[in-house]
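Chapter review: from sequence to fold.
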Amino acid sequence: MIAFLRGALLENTGETVVVEVAGIGYQVLISGATLGALPAVGSVAQLHVHSHFVKDEPIRLYGFADADERRLFETLIDVQGVGPRVALAILAGLPPEELVRAISTSDVGRLKQIKGVGGKLAERLALELREKITALPAARARPSSPPAGAPKGPLGEVYGALVQLGYKPVEFEPLLETMDAQRPIEELVRDALGALRKR
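The token string follows.
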């Protein structure tokens, strides 16, 4: 399995690139975000790669500028009805943090605004991924400095993550007071989201 490529960028069509590594040219399908991060043709490029196997078809390589976007892509294609092409379209439709927020809060209306995502697929994404998605790095993206009024330590990180996901402090501050700061941050965020959805 190919997981990473680093070499001369020989070709860039906007949808695919060819990267030469040790005299071999690898054709890689890329995301929109990765397209914007690539150097000029002739320069050295590096891609985090997902190798996709389908029976009776050639192996296809999907490339990303960073490992976090690849993880988000691989999470999306775990959903029934989401193939690699659809996953790339979803990634192109929303920035990672906004996509994570829409899925984790079951914002089906926002997901349906993505080209190629209908009502049933939007509901499936929200249902199947809302727990998994909170463990991804994009769900933990936070401002560089803690929000005013945020507690210190791990609970402050949970506070920042919930703010990034679109929740207001008044909605979740009572929950933070009941949480065990010794537990992993991902678990605390997941538990908080579960409690907030029940309200």
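Two observations follow directly from the output. The CA atoms of residues 71 and 156 lie 25 Å apart. The chain has three domains: 4-64, 68-135, 142-197.
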